[in-house]
Amino acid sequence: MLAIVCPGQGSQTPGFLAPWLEVPGLADRLAVCSEVTGLDLVAHGTTSDAETIRDTAVAQPLIVAAGLLGLAALADPAGATAPGTATGLPAGTGVVAGHSVGEITAAAAAGVLTQAQALTFVRERGRAMAAASAVTPTGMSAVLGGDPDEVAAALDKHGLTPANNNGGGQVVAAGTLEQLAAFGAEPPARARVVPLQVAGAFHTHHMAPAVDTLAALAAGITPGAPSVTLLSNADGAAVADGAQALARLVAQVSNPVRWDLCTATLAGLGVTALLELPPAGTLAGLAKRALKGIEIVALKTPDDLDAARTLVANHGGTA
After folding, report:
1. Domain that residue 148 falls in
2. Burial code of 240-264, b = ≥16 C-beta within 10 A, e = fewer?
């Protein structure tokens, strides 16, 4: 069984889209994405610096657009399809999941949202989360290793939220910059604390204002039913109903990401291969530690397309 996964915020790096825009048709597709989001995603994906693309209102649309470009390139070996056409999963895909903002990419790939709806949703999500982040200086830090109980106790001591449980001994702490600084100065035993390149305490109560904004937007969207098994960050469960999937996208903004539970579901489904869409690398790395024995391809550049297509051909439609 083939799983396709979509990365979240922090996976972007300066210039990462430059090689993709050399693929026929993708520059036109990205121009359409720019029109919908009101951002120059071509510049942000090629020449903008790290601080510019760290901005939540920029990073989130950029990451979703990148995933959609990767799907388009994957679907058409002779060159990406026209920018106005739909972007879906390769035939034979068994399950799809996204991490944080990557859930929007996954929802579009599975047919819950159209490309335009996904880009509009992520545009408003990025803006609303940036506005919420501006109220109080907040951030996130990865906690690598350590005893899980000791890590949890240390987070609680400093008033931090375990905003992402990524499995493999990786938890992401979120809270105010002061709380994170105090935590970093007194880390749990045998744990390493790494500040992340994000501009807010995502998936915590700090994001509550953004939930209200997205709920109002979602009220005007008629979602489709998922065309394949679509997993939710809330609990790792499959979501069979489009309306439920959309409601979870809204609520997830202020609730922890349980990627560990998504990974457990992938293992339970008997996934034999995993393909990570651009900007790829993070989820592939987690899968190498948590899903032993499966084939993994991180679609980082167009040079990876042949390996990705081979993976799809060998594992699509199999269980």
Report:
1. 135-195
2. eebeebbebbbebbbbbbbbbbbbe
Which pair of tokens denotes residue 51? 């601080």
- Among 307, 111, 136, residue whose Cα is nearest residue 226: 111
Tell me how far apart the alpha carbons of residues 40 and 34 are, in angstroms, rounded to a whole number. 5
**pTM as predicted:** 0.93
Burial (CB count <10 Å: 0-12, 13-18, 19+), residue 293: exposed
Number of structural domains found in the chain: 2
Catalytic positions = 100, 203
Q: Is the Cβ–Cβ distance between 203 and 257 less than 8 Å?
A: yes
Cβ neighbours, 10 Å, residue 175: 24
The angle, 0 to 180 degrees and rounded to 10, between the axes of the packed helices 115-135 and 26-37 is 50
Same domain, 144 and 12: no
- Say if residue 106 is in the same domain as residue 7: yes
Q: What is the pLDDT of residues 253-300, one digit of tens each?
A: 999 999 999 999 999 999 999 999 999 999 999 999 999 999 999 999
Instruction: Give the burial string for 71-92 (b: 16+ CB within 10 Å, else e).
Output: bbbbbeeeebbebeeebbbbee
The CATH number that applies at residue 234 is 3.40.366.10
User: Among the three residues 171, 195, 219, which one is the final residue of a domain in this structure?
Assistant: 195
Boundary residue ending a domain (168, 195, 222): 195
